[in-house]
Specification:
By secondary structure, the chain is mainly β. Helices cover 12% and strands 45% of the residues. The protein has helices at 2-12, 28-33, 207-216, and strands at 40-47, 56-63, 66-74, 83-91, 100-104, 107-115, 118-128, 138-149, 156-162, 167-175, 184-193. Residues 11-23 have low confidence and may be disordered. Residues 1-18 form the signal peptide. Keywords: Signal.
Length: 217
């Protein structure tokens, strides 16, 4: 529904004027105009995601009961709508801070911290999947996550998963009882394969559930 609202707002805002396209970037005011009551922008990132020289935008939105990241692709002058939504990532409704977004070399990175005393830090990496055709979709290509105690009251776990090669690395995090600055010692590193079908923004798994599944093996 939010994607539909965004498209309607962008069409009605007069942004299809060829003299205004391609814009240097989608403005904060235009983004705010697309929000529903109670929604707020957490963060945004701008960059070229598909190599066409236009500035695309990813932004995270929070409301009292939902949070998510939306990706808008800038379209050539005269094409309507001038910015087209191609992906949406659902985030945990409650977080320990705003999501952090960045775009570099065609890859969108989303950093997220959720939980409470026991927290999960996650980094998602997405890029446009050329195999998805003209519609273009944002494919999950990497997922890193760490489960740990913010008060250092229990052990933790971390993983790094490359979905393009299927390679996954996991480590147990043991509380450091031997002194030094590190809160955890990284032990029992394991390397294996976790094969997955292509996962897109809408299909991105819960990183905590992935770690729970890995620890059962």
């Amino acid at each position: 529904m939010r994607m539909l609202a965004i498209t309607i707002v962008l069409l009605s805002s007069g942004m299809a004027d060829a003299q205004r396209l391609p814009a240097s970037r989608l403005t904060d005011a235009q983004l705010n105009d697309s929000l529903e009551l109670g929604q707020e922008i957490e963060d945004r990132a701008d960059g070229d995601l598909n190599g066409d020289g236009l500035i695309d935008t990813a932004y995270s939105v929070s409301s009292p009961d939902a949070r998510g990241v939306t990706v808008l692709i800038a379209q050539p002058a005269g094409v309507k709508p001038p910015f087209r939504p191609i992906g949406e990532l659902k985030l945990e409704p409650v977080a320990l801070g705003p999501a952090s977004l960045s775009i570099a070399k065609g890859v969108l990175k989303v950093e997220e911290l959720t939980g409470g005393t026991t927290a999960v830090s996650a980094i998602y990496r997405f890029r446009i999947d050329p195999a998805a055709g003209r519609g273009q979709r944002m494919r999950l290509i990497g997922l890193d996550a760490t489960l740990y105690s913010r008060t250092y009251s229990h052990d933790g776990f971390e993983m790094s998963w490359n979905l393009l090669t299927s390679a996954i690395v996991t480590r147990e995090l043991r509380l450091n009882k031997g002194g030094g600055d590190a809160a955890y010692d990284k032990v029992f590193e394991q390397r294996s394969k976790r094969v997955s079908k292509p996962l897109y923004m809408e299909d991105a798994p819960d990183p905590e559930m992935v770690m729970i599944d890995l620890r059962k093996r």
